[in-house]
Prior knowledge:
Bound molecules: adenosine-5'-diphosphate, magnesium ion
CATH class of the largest domain: Alpha Beta
CATH superfamily of the largest domain: ATP-grasp fold, B domain
Helix content: 25-40%
Amino acid sequence: MGKVIKPPSMLGMLGGGQLGKFFVIAAHRLGYRVTVLDPDQESPAGKIADNHICSSFSDKSSLDLMINNCEAISTEFENIPSETIKYLEQKVIMHPNSLAISIVQSRVKEKQFIKDLKLPIGPYEPIVSIESFSHLKNKKLFPAIFKQSQFGYDGKGQSHLNNIDEAKTVFNSSNETEFVLEKKLSLDKEISVVLSRSSNGVSKIFPVIENHHEAGILDLSIVPARVNENLKKEAVDYALELAKNLNYIGTIAVEFFISDKKLYVNEIAPRPHNSGHFTLDACNISQFDQQVLSLVGENLIDIRLENNAVMLNLLGDLWLKDGGVKTPKFEEIEESEVNIHLYGKNAPRIGRKMGHITIIGKNIEDLISKAGKIRSKLWES
Length: 381
Ligand code: ADP
Ligand code: MG
């Protein structure tokens, strides 16, 4: 075991969104202080942190401030420039490491990394120049999803396409230069594995999560996932293998597709994950607590699922339904098994994650039907 950073040391967080906010809450609970770096004056994490450095992620004097103020730094966001992570990790404890982030922030590199480890991945082709299209001829990738390699999230930067000409049109009209063209799989289910890996290489794995997306955005997560135990075990093994080969320290999530009863790695998130929010209310320890513990060099805690859970995302759409901005009447759904989390974002936008609700209990099918009723009530409120 290396050096352990003790409270009330100052920790750093790159990114001020909801994942950063939950990190700050977890760190405070454990007695640490947090400095958040985020360019948004109103960022959810910045507003509750001990310090908020409000600047871009590549402003050198702000990075120096982080280095001077913080004992260790983590991130909530994979699109931090990798030069920033490289600069920080030379001077201060920084997890996850720059190599892991640089692989995961590029879909082209990420998929090659998964392939090199011989883990199953759906059919795809990297498109990095107009010549790449000549490799597509006999590959049978259409209908396909054409995804920009960098800066995509929540289904953004993706087009559903039927032929090479459509793909060329998107390629030629985009400012992005790298893409992946993925065969559209017929999905039985989507699942994710969230795990945390400590500085001594020990991993603690949260229960496998079943995920339902709407228009590319996570809508509902169900825990434990309703898939057979063999597939779950396979998914956990792959996630462990990925984390180990990235020399990963911190909380990481791996998304999987199940198609025709077979498992495929979809993508890796080098941070806590939206599908892991149930851990705040249904486990003895959350994905954010483990992120803090791994960052400060502590041992991680054994995980217990104390209740089954269904998590429902709350998007800005719910605030904007009648033309103006109107906060849904959350008081109408209050009860002890319904945990409402609002992120404190001022401006609701279509598709913007404003909060989530975790419903805990015993019977999964009851929880799913309760989630449906809560959703309708909020829409009608
Ligand atoms: P993001 O970074 O936006 O989460 P993903 O690659 O995970 O990007 O895509 C978002 C969602 O779109 C997935 O969770 C899945 O529901 C759907 N999707 C993405 N790729 C495929 C595919 N190859 N086949 C079928 N569905 C897909
Ligand atoms: Mg995804």
